[in-house]
């Protein structure tokens, strides 16, 4: 894992995706790469797994959708629920772009995604952001929105230990500073 890669703030996430979708002077809009990053940020998958997805991999399971994959990096089997809004987002993207259920949704390389992130982040003035920043944002948001449950995030990311997960979460330095500030008691 690249230690210099930071977790995004929600504001950065929104600004990067919006800028990528709209384009800017010298850079055309890129819905494909924006969509890969939206999926990484909302499913918590690594970019390598996002780039191997087919629409047919997201299957209806009763009244919900699930994704059943083997993670490329770890070889671990993973089955999890895909929120309806994400399933619809992917399906609409595929319909707009003529992508069949058995086609790769994103026939691009990780390098292409990284290059686009660099262009957008240079334009926006952000440093230390890579594809992995979107997975870290997912981890941080799940952590904050679920009672700071590190074990939950560890299970979702399929990490071997809570220590590995803790390094993903962008809150630790902030929480340490807040704890120090909140503890100061003068008499």
Q: Please give the CATH architecture.
A: Orthogonal Bundle
Order of helices and strands: HHHEEEHHHHHH
Major sheet summary line: 3 strands, antiparallel
Structural class: mainly alpha
| Mean of pLDDT | 89
Side-by-side strand order of the widest sheet = 1-2-3
Question: What is the multimeric organization of the chains shown?
Answer: single chain
CATH topology: hpI Integrase, Chain A
Q: How many β-strand stretches?
A: 3
The fourth-level CATH homologous superfamily is Intergrase catalytic core
Characterize the structure shown.
- With 187 residues, the protein is mainly alpha-helical.
- The chain has one domain: hpI Integrase, Chain A.
- 53% of the residues lie in helices and 9% in strands.
- The chain contains nine helices and three strands; from the N terminus they run H-H-H-E-E-E-H-H-H-H-H-H.
- It has helices at 10-22, 31-43, 47-50, 84-96, 110-124, 131-145, 150-157, 162-168, 172-183, and strands spanning 58-61, 64-70, 77-82.
- Strands 1-2-3 form a three-stranded antiparallel β-sheet.
- Helix 2 (31-43) packs parallel to helix 6 (131-145) and helix 7 (150-157) crosses helix 8 (162-168).
- It starts with 9 loop residues before the first helix and ends with a helix.
List the helices and strands and how they pair.
Elements: H1 10-22, H2 31-43, H3 47-50, E1 58-61, E2 64-70, E3 77-82, H4 84-96, H5 110-124, H6 131-145, H7 150-157, H8 162-168, H9 172-183
Antiparallel strand pairs: 1-2, 2-3
């Amino acid at each position: 894992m690249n230690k210099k890669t930071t977790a995004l703030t929600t504001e950065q996430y929104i600004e990067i995706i919006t800028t990528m979708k709209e384009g800017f002077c010298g850079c055309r809009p890129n819905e494909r790469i924006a969509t890969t990053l939206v999926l990484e940020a909302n499913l918590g998958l690594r970019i390598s797994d996002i780039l191997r997805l087919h629409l047919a991999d997201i299957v209806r399971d009763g009244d919900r959708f699930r994704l059943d994959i083997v993670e490329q990096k770890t070889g671990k089997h993973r089955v999890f629920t895909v929120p309806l809004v994400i399933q619809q987002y992917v399906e609409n993207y595929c319909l707009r772009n003529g992508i069949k259920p058995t086609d790769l949704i994103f026939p691009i390389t990780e390098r292409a995604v990284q290059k686009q992130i660099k262009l957008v982040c240079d334009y926006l003035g952000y440093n230390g952001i890579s594809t992995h920043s979107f997975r870290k944002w997912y981890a941080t948001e799940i952590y904050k929105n679920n009672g700071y449950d590190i074990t939950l995030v560890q299970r979702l990311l399929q990490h071997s230990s809570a220590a590995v997960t803790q390094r993903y979460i962008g809150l630790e330095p902030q929480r340490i500073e807040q704890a120090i500030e909140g503890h100061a008691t003068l008499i």
